[in-house]
């Protein structure tokens, strides 16, 4: 699994209103939460792969070669390792006679986080994340739990 570090961020977010609010910070491809509490975290990845079309297709493909894992992790300095919070496992199908395949993956979950926890996203095949401006990572603190 490789970390996704290319997100819509910084000045690119100037036209939006909701990505970095309530003290949530973005640093090195991760969101850092400021307060202990319940958060709704969401990750959307726009995935593409080139398709070198060949009229002769391999007869059998391993199932593992067609599975894509997209997962969200938290890192806490006390634990000193990434802990998986949620994941999605899906297949992607080869497109017949097309130049590329395009598909997406999204995960959303409620999770209890501590102040300073870092949220990251990993994917089993980083080469599928060709368009970082289409990828979103979002965390919203549930203010009703304060």
Automatic annotation (TrEMBL):
Keywords (A to Z) from UniProt:
Cytokine, Membrane
Question: What highest taxon heads this organism's lineage?
Answer: Eukaryota
Q: What biological processes does GO assign it?
A: immune response
A GO molecular-function term, please?
A: cytokine activity
Q: What is its main location?
A: membrane
In this protein, which residues make up the domain named THD?
1-146
Q: Which SUPFAM superfamilies match?
A: TNF-like
Annotated compartments: Membrane
InterPro entries attached to this UniProt entry: TNF_dom, Tumour_necrosis_fac-like_dom
Q: Name one GO cellular component term.
A: membrane
Protein family according to the UniProt entry: Belongs to the tumor necrosis factor family.
Q: What is this protein called?
A: THD domain-containing protein
Whose protein is this, by species?
Answer: Dreissena polymorpha
